[in-house]
Design goal:
By secondary structure, the protein is an alpha+beta fold. It has 25 helices and 20 strands. The chain folds into 6 domains: 7-188, Hypothetical protein af1432 (Orthogonal Bundle); 207-358, Beta Polymerase, domain 2 (2-Layer Sandwich); 405-480, Roll (Ubiquitin-like (UB roll)), CATH 3.10.20.30; 489-571, no CATH class; 594-654, no CATH class; 662-736, 2-Layer Sandwich (Alpha-Beta Plaits), CATH 3.30.70.
Length: 740
């Protein structure tokens, strides 16, 4: 090993290896140490533990991580043997059968699970994906794998300065803050969680980190003295009143202080709760009522000694939180006019809070996940167990938390969440509506499969499409997701709408051939009299042959004749009786060139439903967790996005000639008369380059309110249409939907 190690590293290895053996001695079997050493001596010359690009010795990294997992987390024999040996197995230098034979089934299974979990990172999947940690759990299967990964990430963070790639260090820091620090907190590893968050801040925002660290250092002596000054009379008074208790002060972490500075937008000197005092009353208590009354008695003593702030008092003893949390919180004016937060609870209440039933991350508002919380609470209880080896209990903890969900990879390594039983067709529609509509098959893990193939957790899927493919009614029985079902139904409706449009043009030609002037209001009344709820249904029956156009014309002429012969003034029919159709779906397009962030083209994007931008509009791009959304400037949500997520907004503009069709919704108000609505639909139908896609009308207080969804090529065409509708007799107002 002289060649493999530098002299300093050789000393480090010997020292740390002895420490690891001491930590594991109670659980190691007789030949374990010798077997591991012989395996290491065999695989090191084969390049198994080469230095990485940062110059970190691979074996020292594994050893240091194992030592961290043993001393700071408490992992034992099987976990740490698996950590030391999984790299030789991964590189094909050590058969898994040898691990099983030499160290048992448990160690071999842990090696396999570490290898399986490492596959996720090999795929370059975005760790900040909301689905990543779900798939991580299902791949890991055993909580000890998660604990080993936490240890490995903490080791890397502690050695972050050695990373030559700044972007890699930032990626590691974000990963730790997003995924592993919250996991450490859920598992009760509070010091690790705090260290991870602080180190993450150190690398992502060093200026902020060192600013707070310097401020804390400058004030530490006075802060410690102040805590002691505050506690001393409280301790004396509580002892005088016969309480048995534990009292301590704790300073908030750098990460927590930074969050407070950002949230409250204040200066460091103005933070009045840099630390908190926690008073934990010891039992036993005769009853829960006695336990609570003792908390109130201690509360009374504190508030008699120091002036409380009534706005900062929180009583979770009289009425505990829904998650079971019980405690009294108050903020009092301490010596020198400084506010101090005081928490009062009993040992039982503290154990409930600390064991996960109402952990600190919960009542700070962090999103809770059903199933995971209960599981993690059990794990934490095992971690804190007084048994000789609590990790033996964890062997039976399988992380089957998401048995109703699967997570599959796109060709680019992104993760999609689907329900169990989802098919290739579900996946295709989850990627994009157009991909789903033209899906003919897929390549799953390198094998060609049909659209009805059921997907499994961790599958890699690439969809095959053909332009001639289109949705079929039978597809509804193949898919398991509501999104796919909705998109298929929408596509079928659109196909029906095309057929209806063809039938409409056919009927108009028949009228023209017979030199009959078609009156739209009369036709609408005829359609309503025939019992149709929508105009589209009427035209679909013509296209399918259920209605004969010539018979329609004859019946139309007969009705027109009767109406003209009637001496009575034509009845005004409420516009609310006009046929309504479903709301238009979100439109996605790639046909028109759109330039994002100065000169980027060819990027996948969607047009936002909240403002329906069209070609020619002034626009901007918003980078969301679901991809890039294009919004119109003046969008109702623009100000909120800029205030909260300004860093996600990117400049965008249209280019090209505008060859696509876009959906725009017009909100029209007018006098309550169906004839006005039919005049508007007729106007839209005659307008060049414009088509009516759907509409919805209701009436109240003598006015109709209609939402007309139209297809247009660009904003000038839409402006011209709006102008013409405004000039229609009986129309009161016209507004484009999504105006800010």
């Amino acid at each position: 090993m002289e060649i493999f190690f530098t002299p300093e590293e050789k000393k480090e290895f010997a020292c740390r290896y002895r420490r690891l053996l001491r930590a594991l001695r109670p659980t190691l079997e007789k030949e374990d140490a010798g077997k591991v050493r012989r395996i290491l001596e065999r695989v090191i010359p084969l390049g198994c533990y080469q230095r990485d690009k940062n110059g970190i010795n691979g074996l020292l990294r594994s050893l240091d991580t194992a030592l961290l997992a043993a001393e700071e987390i408490g992992l034992k024999r099987s976990s740490l043997i698996a950590l030391l040996l999984y790299r030789p197995v991964m590189k094909g230098l050590l058969p898994i059968e040898e691990v099983k034979e030499g160290f048992g089934d448990d160690a071999a299974k842990l090696v396999e699970r570490l290898l399986r979990t490492s596959e996720l990172y090999a795929r370059n999947t975005a760790v900040d994906s909301e689905n990543f940690h779900h798939l991580l759990f299902s791949f890991a299967e055993d909580v000890r794998v998660i604990l080993l990964m936490i240890a490995d990430r903490l080791y890397l963070l502690r050695n972050g300065k050695r990373m030559v790639d700044t972007e890699e260090r930032l990626r590691l820091s974000r990963e730790a803050a997003y995924l592993y620090a919250p996991l450490a907190h859920r598992l009760g590893l509070y010091s690790i969680k705090g260290e991870m968050e602080d180190l993450s801040l150190k690398y992502t925002d060093p200026e902020r980190y060192y600013f707070i660290k310097l401020k804390l250092s400058e004030t530490k002596r006075s802060r410690d003295a102040y805590i002691a000054e505050f506690i001393r009379p409280v301790k004396e008074k509580l002892e005088m009143e016969g309480f048995r208790f534990d009292i301590k002060g704790r300073t908030k972490s750098i990460h927590s202080i930074n969050n407070k500075l950002k949230k409250q937008q204040i200066e460091f000197e103005n933070i009045y709760d840099l630390f908190a005092i926690r008073i934990i009353l010891e039992g036993p208590f005769a009853s829960l009522e006695k336990e609570r009354s003792e908390c109130w008695r201690a509360f009374s003593i504190i508030t008699n000694m120091y002036q409380p702030n009534p706005k900062r008092m929180k009583d979770w003893i009289s009425i505990p939180k829904s998650n079971g949390y019980e405690s009294l919180h108050t903020t009092v004016m301490g010596p020198g006019g400084r506010w101090v937060e005081v928490q009062i609870r009993t040992r039982r209440m503290d154990e409930i809070a600390e064991r996960g039933l109402a952990a600190h991350w919960k009542y700070k508002g962090v999103k809770e996940e059903v199933g995971l919380d209960e599981f993690m609470t059990n794990v934490r209880m095992a971690l804190e167990s007084k048994d000789s080896d609590p990790f033996e209990l964890m062997k039976n903890f399988r992380m089957d938390l998401y048995s109703d969900e699967i997570y599959v990879f796109t060709p680019k390594g992104a993760l999609l969440k689907l329900p169990k039983g989802a098919t290739v067709l579900d996946f295709a529609f989850a990627v994009h509506t157009e991909v789903g509509c033209h899906c003919v098959s897929a390549i799953v893990n390198g094998r060609n499969v049909p659209i009805r193939q059921v997907l499994q957790n961790g599958d890699s899927v690439s969809v095959n499409t053909q332009p001639s493919q289109s949705p079929k009614p039978g597809w509804l029985s193949i898919v398991a997701t509501s999104k796919a079902r909705i998109r298929i139904k929408q596509a079928l409706r659109e196909e029906a709408a095309k057929n209806a449009e063809y039938a409409r043009e056919l009927l108009q030609r028949r009228f023209k051939n017979r030199k009959i002037e078609l009156d739209e209001p009369t036709l609408m009344r005829y359609i309503k009299k025939k019992g149709y709820k929508t105009v589209t249904e009427f035209y679909i029956d013509i296209s399918s042959g259920k209605l004969d156009p010539n018979q329609v014309i004859e019946e139309y002429l007969e009705q027109d004749k009767k109406e003209k012969e009637s001496a009575a003034e034509p009845e005004v029919i409420s516009a609310g009786n006009f046929s309504a159709q479903t709301e238009v779906e979100e439109k996605t397009t790639q046909q028109d060139v759109l330039v994002i962030d100065k000169n980027l083209t060819g990027i996948d994007y969607k047009l936002a439903k909240c403002c329906n931008p069209i070609y020619g509009d002034d626009i901007f791009a918003f980078v969301s967790t679901q991809g890039i959304r294009i919004h119109r400037k003046g969008c109702p949500n623009e100000q909120e996005m800029r205030n909260r997520f300004g860093y996600r907004i990117v400049d965008a503009r249209w280019s090209g000639k505008g060859s696509n069709e876009y959906v725009a919704a017009l909100l029209v108000t007018g006098r309550d008369d169906i004839g006005i609505v039919t005049n508007i639909t007729s106007l839209i139908g005659k307008e060049k380059g414009v088509a009516l896609r759907s509409l919805q009308v209701d009436s109240r207080d003598g006015y109709f309110h209609g939402s007309f969804s139209v297809l247009v090529k660009d904003s000038p065409s839409l402006s011209q249409l709006i102008s013409k509708i405004k000039n229609t007799r009986g129309v009161v107002s016209v507004q484009r939907q999504g105006e800010g």
